[in-house]
Amino acid sequence: MGFFQFAAGVLALLQFNGRKTEAAWDRRPHVDPWRGAAQSGQRHVYSRRGNSILGGKRRTAWLWSQEIASSGAGTLKPYPANVFDTCIQINLQQGFGGGEVFTAALTRALRRIGIGTLLFVDPHAEAWSSLPMPDTRVESLADLADLPGLLHGKPRSWLLFHTFAPAEVVDALRAQGHLVSAFAHMPLYGRDPRPLVPFDLILAGSRHVIASLHAAGIRRVHPEPLYAVAQIDRVGAGSEPLRARSRYDWDRRKLRDRALGALEPLWRRFLTETAYARRTGLALGVVSRITPIKQFPLLFTHLAPILARHPVVQLEIFGSGGYASIRDLARALRPIRERVRFWGYQRDVGAAYRSVDFLLTGLPEKEALGLNVIEAQACGTPVIAPDAPPFDETVMHGASGLRYRDPREDEGADFERTLELVLGGGFRFDKESAGAHLLRFSEDAFVERLRALIGVLAGAGLGRIGAS
Q: Do residues 183 and 108 lie in contact, with contact meaning Cβ atoms separated by under 8 Å?
């Protein structure tokens, strides 16, 4: 940390333009989207170079028809009267997190019921190439304001915004006859609800988020949570072992981060590359992006003194974050710094989950669902989480994990009791009960929830859908 602080001071007056990163799909050979259909399990990604799927005299991308192959998870017949042939999704996040994994899972589930996906992404986002999305059409979009022009004159479509568009864009799309929905990836507690007001329908991934929408006065909310699906497999995962990588996720919009990000590769040359190896004792793990919504620094302000009293406990952190988030987390972990290891972002998240004895979550109220909680349990790794929404939806206490009282309420006393229970061998992962609990997060269950949603959309006329 001292080196980075010194470097930040030295380079404070320097400007770095930041090398533009070529998007992953732009590095692939361009494929004509209208010559043949993608094979089952094969991902076709298209560039905006050459023959755009939005232009020319070709048939519009959202009206293609194709055979929907069995996913291997059971044969499900396409919805008999789809109101839309394609869902146009818009996710302009540059980073990679649960929202992007959910977007990819949604494209696969929609495909199983006969609905294709046209996905608009940020031109500089690279993570999409690591997610399996068979037959998904991917287009780069630099500005949400361009959408009405791109879709002008096209047939009525279902749009799903993961990145919220301003009201004037939503109004323009609705005026063209499109059904304009949004997905709330975050609870609204403490957040401004106004960006969600213009949309026809709001979808959410948990009852916790739905409750926050209603509390904020948002009424056009689909009443059932879509939840999520554990997506352990990543393209390229398993090809390399767990190794220490950068703990930082540099924000190229900030001068400090651009400077430190440019210097980090030079500094890391002097470090011995460390491969992951289990240590003796109880391994607690954080497998997550280190972001403010997780509140890890605040969590460990309460938990680190307790962990310090139990020297057999080790902490492994798999994930990266911004400079300030990592700095604040390292400060909170000082009481146990000799037992903490940072591994950075790992492509093979399944290996990360299986390398620890328990997953630790962050604090609850800003969390939408916790995809990592579902993924860990799917890997057979139990979870220790605060006893509050949304974790009461995802962790089956006593079977797939343990829930403890929020440490801000009792200075961590219940967490310490939970830790002592674990150290004493008083908890075992109940595979049978956990399996039944996790069925709601299976792809088949996800598909059935989407069938119900499509039924709602099929019954919707032009304009806004009635309040739930």
A: no
Nearest to 21 by CA among 146, 136, 129, 131: 129
In angstroms, the CA 239 to CA 242 distance is 10
Contact 156, 178 (CB under 8 A): yes
Residue 310 and residue 280 in contact, taking contact as beta carbons nearer than 8 Å:
no
Contact 130, 107 (CB under 8 A): no
Can you read off the two tokens belonging to residue 6? 């010194």
Give the tens place of pLDDT for each residue, 175-231: 999 999 999 999 999 899 999 999 999 999 999 999 999 999 999 999 999 998 987
Going by the DSSP 8-state scheme, the letter that residue 161 receives in this structure is E
Q: How far apart are the first and last CA of the chain?
A: 50
Q: What is the pTM of this model?
A: 0.79
Which helix (H) or strand (E) element contains residue 315?
strand 313-318
Q: What is the DSSP string of 244-267?
A: ----B---TTSHHHHHHHHHHHHH
Where along the chain do the CATH 3.40.50.2000 domains lie?
23-229+443-458, 255-441
Say if residues 223 and 201 touch (Cβ distance below 8 Å). Answer: no
Homologous superfamily of domain range 255-441: Glycogen Phosphorylase B; (3.40.50.2000)
Domain spanning 23-229+443-458: which superfamily?
A: Glycogen Phosphorylase B; (3.40.50.2000)
